[in-house]
Automatic annotation (TrEMBL):
<feature type="domain" description="SnoaL-like">
    <location>
        <begin position="12"/>
        <end position="108"/>
    </location>
</feature>
<dbReference type="Pfam" id="PF12680">
    <property type="entry name" value="SnoaL_2"/>
</dbReference>
<dbReference type="InterPro" id="IPR032710">
    <property type="entry name" value="NTF2-like_dom_sf"/>
</dbReference>
<dbReference type="InterPro" id="IPR037401">
    <property type="entry name" value="SnoaL-like"/>
</dbReference>
<protein>
    <submittedName>
        <fullName>Ester cyclase</fullName>
    </submittedName>
</protein>
<dbReference type="InterPro" id="IPR009959">
    <property type="entry name" value="Cyclase_SnoaL-like"/>
</dbReference>
<dbReference type="GO" id="GO:0030638">
    <property type="term" value="P:polyketide metabolic process"/>
</dbReference>
Length: 126
C-alpha cells in the first residue's frame, strides 16, 4: 500500500472513530506529538479536540458523519463530508484538510457550510 493510501485510511479511521463517539481512541491511535488547529473557534492539542467532540456529541447525540470523498497528495488528506447534527435536518457540508507526519495527524484546517433547503441547481452538494 502506498503512503498516500495509508494516509487516507488513517484519516478516515481517525475521523470516524472520533465522531462515532470515541475521540480518546482516535487520538491514541492517530495523533502525532502535536495537534495544530487552524479553526479559529478551536484550540490546539488533543485535550481541546476531545473536549470539542464530547461537547458536540452531548449536544447532538444522534449526529451522523458521512465521508463522501477522500483525496490525498503527499502528506495532505482532504475529506468532503456530510455532517447531520439532528435527524431530518439538512446538516452541513465539511471540507477538512489534515496534514500527517510519519502516519500521524498533526495539523487540521476546515471549511464548513450549511446545506441549504433549496438549491439553484439540481446537482446537490455531495
Amino acid at each position: 500500500m502506498s503512503d498516500i493510501e495509508r494516509n487516507k485510511q488513517i484519516v478516515v479511521d481517525y475521523y470516524q472513530t472520533a465522531f462515532g463517539g470515541n475521540p480518546q481512541k482516535a487520538i491514541e491511535d492517530h495523533f502525532g506529538d502535536r495537534y495544530i488547529q487552524h479553526n479559529p473557534d478551536a484550540a490546539d492539542g488533543p485535550e481541546a479536540f476531545i473536549g470539542f467532540v464530547t461537547w458536540l456529541r452531548g449536544e447532538y447525540p444522534d449526529l451522523q458523519l458521512d465521508i463522501k470523498h477522500v483525496i490525498a497528495e503527499g502528506d495532505m488528506v482532504v475529506t468532503h463530508s456530510h455532517l447531520i447534527l439532528k435527524p431530518g435536518e439538512p446538516g452541513r457540508a465539511l471540507a477538512d484538510y489534515f496534514r500527517l507526519e510519519d502516519g500521524k495527524v498533526v495539523e487540521h484546517w476546515d471549511v464548513i457550510q450549511d446545506v441549504p433547503a433549496q438549491s439553484a441547481n439540481p446537482n446537490g452538494m455531495f
